[in-house]
Amino acid sequence: MIFDSYFTVPVILSDNSPLKLHPESTVNLSCAFYGDPHPQLTWLKNNSILMNGTSGIEITTSGNLSVLSITDRRGESGGIYVCNASSVAGHAYSNFTIECKLLSTKGLDMIYFWSILDFPSPVRQTSILSVSDNFVSVNWTIGEPGSSLPTEVQIEILTSNNNSLVQRLSIRINETQTTVFYLYPLTPYNFTYYVVSIVGRSRPITSQVTTLSLGIFFTT
Length: 220
Description:
Elements: E1 8-14, E2 19-21, E3 27-36, E4 40-45, E5 48-49, E6 57-62, E7 65-70, E8 79-87, E9 90-106, E10 109-117, E11 125-132, E12 136-141, E13 152-159, E14 165-172, E15 177-180, E16 188-196, E17 205-210, E18 217-219
């Protein structure tokens, strides 16, 4: 399929920063969306499409702004919400994760605490501890935990020349260094770090290192 040159892929701007909400308040999720032709905006919860009239759900879309209001108070509104903008030129989406916590019960009434979880903060600093012809040792510093506690750090090692994935490591969150073996001499690699929580992965932080020639070892 060939698109006319004036078509532009949809873009979504949304504020999915963490919120702490009183049980009697309304959760409002908003997405501003743009594109040419004008995209169609769809809201989903846990991969199911939401419609006006769904219990506790109200969707208001006007121009380039769509707002999803959630008024359910039974503690069943937790989940992953997605606003998806699509057109013939492509699509874009933004995620929101809502968590409901039971605070107390009064007779048959239940009081829930609502919060919108954010993606974890990325690593703050990375450094090379040592490098040889076939391995690299690295360490990192974890950023602020945010509202969703991180569970692990993922490191993807790719060759810098053709961006081919060489290894993917999953490391417990309380560990802050590792050694990557079975690398090739005199080869530049990109080490990309992600902090992972139940919401998803942080934005990536990438550093580059080149292995040394055979028999050479360097430590900082």
